[in-house]
TrEMBL record, chain A:
Xref: InterPro entries: DsrEFH-like (IPR027396), Sulphur_relay_DsrE/F-like (IPR003787), Sulphur_relay_TusD/DsrE (IPR017463)
Localization (cell): Cytoplasm
Protein name (database record): Sulfurtransferase
Any Pfam family: DsrE
One Gene Ontology molecular-function label: sulfur carrier activity
Gene3D superfamilies named in the record: DsrEFH-like (3.40.1260.10)
SUPFAM superfamilies found in the cross-reference section: DsrEFH-like (SSF75169)
From TrEMBL, chain B:
Organism: Magnetospirillum moscoviense
GO biological process, alphabetically ordered: tRNA wobble position uridine thiolation
Gene3D superfamilies: DsrEFH-like (3.40.1260.10)
GO cellular component: sulfurtransferase complex
Name assigned to this protein: Sulfur relay protein TusB
Matches recorded under InterPro entries: DsrEFH-like (IPR027396), Sulphur_relay_TusB/DsrH (IPR007215)
Automatic annotation (TrEMBL), chain C:
InterPro entries: DsrEFH-like, Sulphur_relay_DsrE/F-like, Sulphur_relay_TusC/DsrF
Gene3D superfamilies given in the database record: DsrEFH-like
Species this protein is from: Magnetospirillum moscoviense
Protein name in the entry: Sulfur oxidoreductase
Transmembrane spans: none
Pfam families: DsrE
SUPFAM superfamilies attached to this UniProt entry: DsrEFH-like (SSF75169)
Family: Belongs to the DsrF/TusC family.
Amino acid sequence: MKFGILVNEGPYNHQASDSAYQFAKAALEKGHEIFRVFFYYDGVLNATKHSEPPSDDRNVIKNWQKLAEDHKVDLVVCVAAGLRRGIVESSLAPGFRISGLGQLIESGIQCDRMVTFGD
Amino acid sequence: MSILHTVNKSPFERSNLDSCLKHANQGDSVLLLEDAVVAAIAGTAFAARLTDAAKMVKLCVLGADLKARGLDPAKVIDGVAVVDYAAFVDMAAANNAVHAWL
Amino acid sequence: MEEDFEGGIVKKFMYVNRKAPYGTVYALEVLEMVLISAAFDQDVHVAFLDDGIYQIKKGQDTKELGHKNFSPTYRALEGYDIEKLYVEQESLDERGLTEADLLVPVEVISRAEMAKLMGEMDVILTA
């Protein structure tokens, strides 16, 4: 089955991004496809390359990056929400790309299920 | 047509779970995750409400979130199933849509 | 063009608004999402329940906040062929509001009807 995921919150204030990551990992392990993960609202902050969490904490950004590398998951950051919050092309960690909100709607159309994680 | 509803906030803090239960249809599923898992434990002020809901919808709670909060999966309300992320994926697939009550 | 690109699929989308405006950014950014979705020729439904009904309360004046008052945009949705706006009666009642307090034409439905409508959707987006 083809899943689309929407992440509404940033990496460390809320558990949303972690829950989304665990869901995506479990879906891939079961042989499902993650068509796209779309980052909107403060969720765009998940894409920053400047995040350096303490070494004894999980690295939310790296988790997403690894998922993208290992499974070719499309990680899309909303351009408008990113601009508001200072997330632009030059702030992106590898594996993320910036595009329009239309990519989220397209995900809703193309995927069998859309799953949202937020606050 | 059925929906998997997800709720991630404690009913003691926000109205998400209350609103979700008021809008769930017979045969829908409701998954409690993150801070909402506190609602799944027996003996709370919300337990009667959840026991009632379990007659109409399939109620589940994410075990990982229970354990993280020091809550014993053995102490969940009768009729609430403790599940893992893999089961969460299965439920998302088994229902027609997923509605996150944020 | 969109139709060809998307293979002519038309799904029932619902945007569920349950939060008041200005205290958080969700109302505004959901509205931006709704506007974009108009370009995709989908069957769009916009639901207002719980505190979401404050998003379309008449007479919003944000001058002293310094925020942009985006509430007139809800009236512009019709121009984008987004005409299925639903408000839950019980949510109005709980807040001492009536349909006359709303700034845009909507269909007021009961909580039971809202629940049934949600059950008919293919994609439900919330924030």
